[in-house]
Amino acid sequence: MNGVVCGNWSASSSAAVYAYIIYQPLPEKEAKDLGLEIQSHKKSQEFVNAFIKHCIPNVKTLSTGEYMSRKAVVLEYSQEKKKRKQHKAKGITAKERRELKLFTVNPDQQRYHMYLPLHELWKQYIRNLCLGNRASAQPQMIQMKLLKADLHGAIVTVFKSKCPSYVGLTGIILQESKHIFKIITKEDKLKVVPKLNCVFSVEFDGFISYIYGSKLQMRASERSAKKFKSKGSIDL
């Protein structure tokens, strides 16, 4: 075949091209040496044409000879792409985390003074986040920064709450989940405080900010990417 075969190959299309080349009349001498019976040209041509039309169904208007003698033949791609299943890394469940006690603070580690260095690191982090808490900084800007900030290590106070027993509770945030804070107090007691129905005050470098717990009801990683509206919150 004089043309150049290109495109995506399928098993049937490849067989059609090879059939066109292979099923050519053999010279009489070679056929006699091999002991083969030479079929008539018309019969062999009919077989090849039928085989090619079966393998390449798009050939309708042109004859197979004209179609295969073109300079370029684009063969039909019939093989379907197999969808690869993406195996996601399977993490441990909440039940398994509880059984392993990954987030449990042991009683010997419930000491307020042990987490004062963590609070100092948090103050450095929040100063960098709020651009040094400059005097020219607007309170709304600092408020929005605190809403998105990581509060692990911050000293917070429950300013208001529908449950009176929480009011006045002060301590360092050790753990934060979607709905609660775990706070270690100066009396070395670990308290679990719900975010809902509570208003928290956060103080650093003389600046006090009041944050509604309902705005914090999400994980810290999710809160950092959330866009908060600037309008005020409803009081308790």
UniProtKB/TrEMBL annotation:
The answer, when asked if Lyase is one of the entry's keywords, is no
**What Pfam families does this protein's entry cite?**
RNase_P-MRP_p29
Annotated compartments: Nucleus, Nucleolus
Q: Which GO terms describe its biological process?
A: rRNA processing; tRNA 5'-leader removal
Q: InterPro entries under this entry?
A: RNase_P/MRP_Rpp29-subunit (IPR016848), RNase_P/MRP_Rpp29_sf (IPR036980), Rof/RNase_P-like (IPR023534), Rpp29/RNP1 (IPR002730)
Recorded GO CC terms: nucleolus; ribonuclease MRP complex; ribonuclease P complex
For this UniProt record, the keywords arranged alphabetically read as follows: Nucleus, Phosphoprotein, tRNA processing
Q: Does the keyword tRNA processing apply?
A: yes
Which family is this sequence assigned to? Belongs to the eukaryotic/archaeal RNase P protein component 1 family.
Q: How does it assemble?
A: Component of nuclear RNase P and RNase MRP ribonucleoproteins. RNase P consists of a catalytic RNA moiety and 10 different protein chains; POP1, POP4, POP5, POP7, RPP14, RPP21, RPP25, RPP30, RPP38 and RPP40. Within the RNase P complex, POP1, POP7 and RPP25 form the 'finger' subcomplex, POP5, RPP14, RPP40 and homodimeric RPP30 form the 'palm' subcomplex, and RPP21, POP4 and RPP38 form the 'wrist' subcomplex. All subunits of the RNase P complex interact with the catalytic RNA. Several subunits of RNase P are also part of the RNase MRP complex.
Protein name, UniProt field: Ribonuclease P protein subunit p29
Q: State the species of origin.
A: Engystomops pustulosus
